Amino acid sequence: MLTLAIAPPSLRHTLMQGEHEVSGQDGLVLSTILGSCIACCLHDRSSAIGGMNHFLLPAPPNGLPGRSDDAERYGLFAMEVLVNAMLKRGATRSTMRAHLYGGANLHVGMRAIGSENAGFARAFLAADGIALAHEDTGGGDARRIEFQPATGRVRCRAVVGRLREEPVRAALPADSGDVELF
Amino acid sequence: MSIQILTVDDSPSMRALLRAALTGEGYRVDEAEDGRSAMEWLASNRPALVITDINMPRLDGFGLIAEVRAQAQFNALPILVLTTESSPEKKARARAAGATGWIVKPFDPAKLAAAVRRVIH
Questions:
Q1: DSSP for B55-79?
Q2: Which GO biological process categories is it annotated with (chain B) (predicted)?
Q3: Whole-angstrom Cα distance, residue A175 to residue B105?
Q4: Distance CA B103, CA A152 (A)
Q5: Domains annotated on chain A, with CATH
Q6: Which of B14, B95, B118 lies at the smallest CB-CB distance from A80?
Q7: I need a labelling partner for B84 at 20 to 30 A (CA). Which of A8, A63, A181, B61 fits?
Q8: Is A172 in Cβ contact with B106 (below 8 Å)?
Q9: Chain A residue with minimal CA distance to B93?
Q10: Catalytic amino acids of A?
Q11: What's the pLDDT tens digit per position in A26-60?
Q12: Given CB atoms, is B98 within the 8 Å cutoff of chain A?
């Protein structure tokens, strides 16, 4: 533990599926690797902060086409916690710019879950009035994303021939939506 | 005449999802995009329930609850908070301001419907 405490502060944070982070720290890079998952990078120039999430919608029941209600709620939650974290740090929806990455369809001939996830994120941004400045989604290759939240700069590289494993599709936690009456 | 519910959330996506869940249960849903718009709407309407987010521009959920409770005519109006926040401090603050209940997103339609039935008399 002592060695951790005296190590220089890391300026690179890796985001795993289901996580999000918002920061205005100079030099910080948020990094993630995406297959069919989506990362939304938000940057607000007026407040010099940015944030990124990394999510995958839950599978619809019985493999039915289209998005299930669960998927809709989960995706909305993943986007809303990111947007709320940005708003709390002084960003506004009208000054935020979004980049979308990921949503690859890793297996030819199988359900295009990557495209479905990208479509969800695009629809969310449109409905919530957040401008989509750049999108690099779909295709058959995984991507490595490096995002500087303070500046909004993004580097997206293909990770060819790797990441053939589908990530575990998210599910809503059993206690989600629990109600406490006072 | 169906029972009227006001939902208050700055996210159009969340308002649409709530509308789908509540109209599916037979309720009539009106919407406001923040606490200030909600107060303007409440000046001429008497819903059976308010469901509000916490983080909103102009007037947030805490402010909305306080302003509603400051009016005697809304003493008995149930207010459910629906939020991404889960901190005990914020929950306690909402309770002290006069909220009726606290629901953490992502909401579960069945649990939400059960809570709505319980607080609407």
A1: --SSS-HHHHHHHHHTSGGGTT--E
A2: phosphorelay signal transduction system
A3: 10
A4: 34
A5: 10-159 (3.30.1330.200)
A6: B14
A7: A63
A8: yes
A9: A182
A10: 37
A11: 999 999 999 999 999 999 999 999 999 999 887 66
A12: no
